[in-house]
Each structure stands twice: as structure tokens, then as C-alpha cells.
Amino acid sequence: MDRVEHSERADPLVDAVRSAVRALPLGRGRDVLHGRWLGHPVHPLMVQLPLGSWMSAAVLDLVPGQQRAARALVGVGLAAALPAAAAGWTDWAELRRPQMRVGLVHAASNAAGVALYAVSFAARTRGRFARGRLWGLAGLAAVSIGGAIGGHMAFRQASGANHAEQFEDLAGSGWHAIGDVADFPVGAPVRHHVGDEPVVVVHEPTGAIHVLAERCSHMGGPLSEGDLIDGCIRCPWHGSTFRLSDGWNTTGPATAAQPAFETRINGSLLEARLRRLGEADASRTATATEDGR
Predict the structure, then answer these.
(1) Its pTM surpasses 0.90
(2) Candidates 3.90.1150.10, 3.30.930.10, 2.102.10.10, 2.60.40.10; CATH matching 167-291
(3) Are 18 and 93 in contact (CB under 8 A)?
(4) Which percentage of the chain shows pLDDT scores above 90?
């Protein structure tokens, strides 16, 4: 996997497939597939149905008289594989290039498994259950390899992880002096620090000053280089949009909100502290009611 991650041989294919996935007219369905409404990616959840169905079919293949039940489970797995793959491809198109290289191998292994299970289902439908079992075992081996590679992407490469999760522990509690108010130009995001942790400061024309964690929760992109849009800031890497007032992720691919600060002016000095959990939850609960999350 390390060799695959650093190999540039598949990059032309990566670019072509990524462009095709991004060009799909999914609209708001793209955020649904990312799992923004849930708060974390839905692909790992969705793959449980095909994998569980196929594993159960393999068990029933060992039980006399359960051929039809096993065939039904193979069919359920095939039907469930399509939406799971759609969610996976949508997430894949917004990853870093090393992750996308490994992701192609992950997808290829799973595609092979789906094809093998399709052959298994066809054989079972024709009454060739022994042959169907063999094709099913081959399919199970392929999707198991694909699942292991998916685990590598999640736990070794942090694909789909919240890249701002550790910020609250590192930034600490209490009020922090950030800088003189005059240092923050109106209408432009500026990168500063709370202790050693980078934050993005936005001084609005209304006089309000907002402070968020600077590294995007999706893939760690620099929000200070992003665009300001209707009270939100958009990450320059993959387009995730966060509300300045409380860090809520209004559009994906980010599935986690951005750590946000309260601010106050002490003389001419801007100070900030992380929002208290209860206050943040109350604000986000109201938003969740509005957008269905």
C-alpha cells in the first residue's frame, strides 16, 4: 500500500475518474452521499449491508437446504452495493492524491467482488448451486481484500476522519490574546495563532470578528486562503463551507463542524476562547432542525 500511495503511474486515471465523478449533476445529493447530515461519512455504514449479506450467504452455503436463502442474500448484497459504491466514489473524489491512488485499488477489488457475486447469483438462479458457491467464495475473498484496503485508507491515511478533532485539546480553554484589532483587515481572512495552533480571523464590515480553527476539518486545508461567502468561509481545497458565527459546516464534503471561538475586545486587543459545549450544541441543534441534520 505504501508503494501504491507514492506511485504516480495511475495519476492520469485518477484525474480522469475524479473529473467524471465531480461532473455528475448530484446537486444537494452530493452532501447526502458524503454524510454531512449524519456528521460523519455514510460509506462505511452502507458497506455493512452487502458485506453482511454476502458473509451470511457463505454461512448458509454450508447448511443443507438453504440454497434459496443464500441466493436471496447474494441478491440483497448486489442491490446494496450500488448505493454504497456511489457514496464511496463521492468521498474518493475529494481526497488527497495519495489516498485516491490507494482508493482506486480498493474500488477495483470491490468491483471484482461484485462481478464475481453477479456470476454467482446467475449460476444459483440456473440451479447450479455448487458452482454458485465457488463463485461466491471468490467474491467474498475479493471484497474482503477491498475491505482491508478500505481500513488502511481510514486508519492509516485518515480518509474521512475529522482533521480538526484534536484542536480543542491543543488550543486549551480560557481567553487567549490573538492580536491588535487593527491587525485584522476588514473583509479578508487572516491567519493567526492561539498558542501554537493556527486560527483564521475574519473581521466583518459590521464590526463583528470571528475566529475558527484554521485547518479544515475535512482534509486540513488552509481556511485563511479561502473565500468569504454570505457569512461563511469556503475551504480552497475541496469547497467545504463553514459558518463564521459558530463553525457549522453548511456544505460538504466536510462532515464535521469547525471548532469556533467566542471573541471580545479588551481595549484594542482581540481575545478569543473556544465556545462552551452547551452554547455550541444549542446553536447547532437549532441549525440541525432547520436543515434536517
Answers:
(1) no
(2) 2.102.10.10
(3) yes
(4) 86
